[in-house]
Amino acid sequence: MNAPDAAALVRLEGAGKRFDNGTVALAGLDLALRRGEFLSILGPSGCGKTTVLRLIAGLAQPSAGRVAWAEPAGRDGRDALGFVFQEPTLLPWRTARGNVALPLILAGVARTEARARAETALAAVGLEGAGHLFARQLSGGMRMRVSIARALVTRPALLLMDEPFAALDEITRERLNADLLRLWREQALTVAFVTHSVYESVFLSMRVVVMARAPGRVAEEITIAAPYPRTESFRAGADYAAACRQVSAALRRAMGEEA
Prior knowledge:
Layout: E1 8-18, E2 24-34, E3 38-42, H1 49-57, E4 64-69, E5 81-84, H2 96-106, H3 111-124, H4 140-152, E6 158-162, H5 170-186, E7 190-195, H6 198-204, E8 207-211, E9 218-223, H7 232-235, H8 238-254
Parallel strand pairs: 3-7, 3-8, 5-6, 6-7
Antiparallel strand pairs: 1-2, 1-4, 8-9
């Protein structure tokens, strides 16, 4: 295992995960998520990418190794993390505002404050004035924005995102990529982002972790050195194309194919 990363917010140290049916999802995985970084996790289907996020979130426990946090949850009035799943999973009988406010209400925050914070979170994701709408009245992109607002409303230090844009059309996906980078910078978040898209991972990330086939482990780590903010001119540039080729080659190696 590599030496501990002093800047890490959370580390997986020798993490393994065996499910009750005998499936081994992860084995000996070492990964440090550094404070303030945007990290993408890329790999073939079934390599344990979602399991990594679930271990960090405490939604599953490692069968081997451990998840080590640099400091306890709740620092500076922030909860430790927010989680954005592949599907928005909005409650259809609640408005957008009501869905976003729900984590605060469940935590005992007064309804007036929860409503105000929900409106602020919706405005941050570009949905100012849409709080009264129900899920059926929202497009797919708008529903995902509500899901992101719900994750941000608790003011997390860490945002975990599990392929949140996979079902969206390319134009909507690119717009949400740009908005996500803006939120990451404005709110000083640490982000771990699971994706199948090489292009998305390169555009978003400071570092791309490529995982090998199950049992999942880190095959390669690639630093994306391009500065922020990243705009459409970055997508059209030679540096972006070169980084995409590098990550694509690493993914092919991780899948056991020729680079």
